[in-house]
Amino acid sequence: MIEDHRILRGSKVVLRPLASGDLRRCVKWFSDPQVTQFLGRNTPVTLAEEERWFRDYLRRGDEQIFAIEVDGRHVGNLGLHKVDRVHRKADLGIVIGEPTYWSRGYGTDALQAALAYGFDLLGLNKVSLDVLEDNVRAQRSYDKCGFVREGLHREDVFKDGRFLNVVRMSILSREFRDRQGSAA
Ligand SMILES: CC(C)(COP(=O)(O)OP(=O)(O)OC[C@H]1O[C@@H](n2cnc3c(N)ncnc32)[C@H](O)[C@@H]1OP(=O)(O)O)[C@@H](O)C(=O)NCCC(=O)NCCS
After folding, report:
1. For the domain 8-183, what is the CATH code?
2. How far apart are CA 158 and CA 52, in angstroms?
3. Could you tell me the distance, in angstroms and rounded to a whole number, from the CA of residue 32 to the centre of ligand 1?
4. pLDDT (tens digit, 9 = 90+) per residue, 5-55?
5. What is the Å distance from ligand 1's center to 68 Cα?
6. DSSP 3-state percent helix, strand, coil across the chain (nearest 5)
7. 98/95 Cα distance (integer angstroms)
8. Residue of 112, 98, 105, 94 lying closest to 18 (CA atoms)
């Protein structure tokens, strides 16, 4: 049997490539204010927009989006964006779209699996992300994975009538490996 390297296994979650059949669920999440309050984006998306985005995504080679599954249920997405083979870096985004699955360790587990894939299989040196300054749960999860605060984009996002600061965080390959070594 041929192993699909894009099926990533954490201890609690499985990550598999996002498929067109998942898009309806994504539209639901990205139209839910409970979820979107934590994201840089403001507007709800339509299925047509999401399908157009997915077609473009399949044509591009610099992005990999995974569906996060818990016990076979698709509960969120994780993306490696702007994968840069020259500078060996990428940006990461994650959303668990089902709020009942928040704060149960799934996000951190998905992040660890994606970082192992990015560093070990894609050969990345650095993975970065942006997070709204008041999104403390997400930052706690990133801290647990070893991301460090790299800087602050002041008043970078306008949301619900106010400008919000955005924190830039990153982790290097050697930092990830050191943490894995000390955890073993
Ligand atoms: C951010 C997200 C991916 C994290 O995944 P998760 O499964 O909820 O996170 P985890 O359970 O692995 O870790 C969250 C940690 O934050 C803690 N936490 C939760 N709410 C908190 C709060 N209000 N203040 C401080 N810590 C908080 C949890 O207790 C946990 O830490 P612990 O393990 O030390 O107890 C998920 O919550 C999510 O998708 N949220 C909505 C969208 C979003 O914010 N995306 C990220 C955009 S940058």
Report:
1. 3.40.630.30
2. 25
3. 17
4. 689 999 999 999 999 999 999 999 999 999 999 998 877 889 999 999 999
5. 15
6. 35, 35, 30
7. 9
8. 94
